[in-house]
Amino acid sequence: MAAGDTQPDLPDRVIVPRSDRHQVVVIGSGFGGLFGTKQLKDADVDVTMIAKTTHHLFQPLLYQVATGILSEGEIAPPTREVLANQKNAQVLLGEVTDIDLENRLVTSHVLGRELVTPYDSLIVAAGAGQSYFGNDHFAEFAPGMKSIDDALELRGRIFGAFEMAELGASRGENVDHLLTFVVVGAGPTGVEMAGQIAELAHRTLTRDFRAISTRHARVILVDAAPQVLPPFGHKLGKWTQEKLEKLGVEVMLGALVSQVDERGLTVKYKDGSEERIDAIAKVWAAGVQANKLGKTLSEQTGAPLDRAGRISVNPDLTLPGYPEVFVVGDMISLDNLPGVAQVAIQGAKYAAKEIEGRLQGKPAQPPFKYFDKGSMAIISRFRAVAMVGKLRVTGILAWLMWLVVHLFYITGFKNRVTAVMHWFVSFIGKGRSERTSTEQQIFARVALQRLARGATDLVSEPGEFDEAQRRAELEEVAAEEARLSDENKRGVKVGG
Ligand SMILES: Cc1cc2nc3c(=O)[nH]c(=O)nc-3n(C[C@H](O)[C@H](O)[C@H](O)COP(=O)(O)OP(=O)(O)OC[C@H]3O[C@@H](n4cnc5c(N)ncnc54)[C@H](O)[C@@H]3O)c2cc1C
């Protein structure tokens, strides 16, 4: 069907028939959605997972897809395949647009087809999207890193910048703007991305070009906060900054991005001074906004949303007045819980156990308690930082810990085997196995924006942008994250 043609006549609204068994609907196929569904494997229920992608995405390794280390298939196996042996689970493609709490109905859409799925219990695990703090127009020039689409588009832009620089240099042109890469946001994703681009430029690509020296590429990491890696505390943040600088990354802190366009961006310092950086390839790893389904749920329950759009839930992860509805993972605001995979996994397992327990007449579980298994971030090959309880680890030991943990959590045996091979190629050797990108990937966002609802979830709600207020908020969040980590208070019950 050509673009612009009308859809063939389809029934407006189809209600999914249900069996007599208890119906659990799970929204999302990410960490919360998948682990919640799996936990219900032996329960006497029918599970319907509705997700807007057909894959389960291992977001922590997106940056490796963007920088040519891993293939998208290795970090995003088809959910249907992962759940093939779970007979009580059905997977349906669809973007959930409405949840009717009173009538217990979930409405989803795919290409004009509407589906209404009834539930007895609901687990909402729709995650978070990128936030541009109201500056949605930045997205066109500085893609975020939340989806496979993002990673492939960034791959195209990063390797494409080197190609265009070679071409420009062959024509005798100045190519500094093509050999300058800016990563906005010095959290774990920004650090990993900056480190990888630096390794690409200074190690991997050095022999591939003739007219340019990739060693002269500038990699700049920008953040409005005063430190790198706030969730890892002050000491690890400082260590990471030193290692990044040794790797050739320029770290610009206290620098709030105030303008982004095709050719570069402008940062503003606290004293009001501005600096313009000419750079074609820019990556946005700065802000997170919880899924807008949180707003739908908030409007129906009165549960408040925080600044990042996360909804307040009861200590058992249910919504006030709706004990059959659980919200887990990146969408929730509870006890300073961080937006990490383990919060989603443990929350979803807790919700699934509660659903099964209720059917078996068991007493309610004690309130949800997050067990912090630690956090880690890679800086470059053989260099990482890790935090496990009060333990702080840096260097090759942290890197080895990272390797083992990620290998364990990558879904599927065959993905683990090929990921190890690709890591071997990139970390021991100098290669990158997945450098290919197509024209369609590079221009994907522009094409998507022409579709109604196409790229909407990649960006935040538009809004007013108050620079001073935004800077104060970012500084406050960074200071609070660093304090919680330094005092080992992440995920600890507030006031308890
Ligand atoms: C680049 C990056 C790096 C990260 N690195 C780490 C790390 O190193 N360690 C760590 O612990 N955490 C890391 N995280 C965070 C971690 O990935 C998240 O905390 C985790 O994915 C949250 O799980 P979730 O189930 O809440 O959401 P997600 O895993 O994001 O899943 C959300 C699901 O909902 C679906 N969905 C969204 N909206 C709809 C809708 N309207 N209808 C239907 N389906 C919908 C999505 O398609 C997706 O399947 C990283 C995140 C990113 C983006």
TrEMBL record:
It is found in: Cell inner membrane. The keyword Transmembrane helix applies. GO terms for molecular function: NADH dehydrogenase (quinone) (non-electrogenic) activity. It comes from the Bacteria. The chain crosses the membrane at residues 391-411. The keyword Oxidoreductase applies. This is NADH:ubiquinone reductase (non-electrogenic). Residues 23-347 form the FAD/NAD(P)-binding domain. It is a single-pass membrane protein. It comes from Nocardioides kongjuensis.
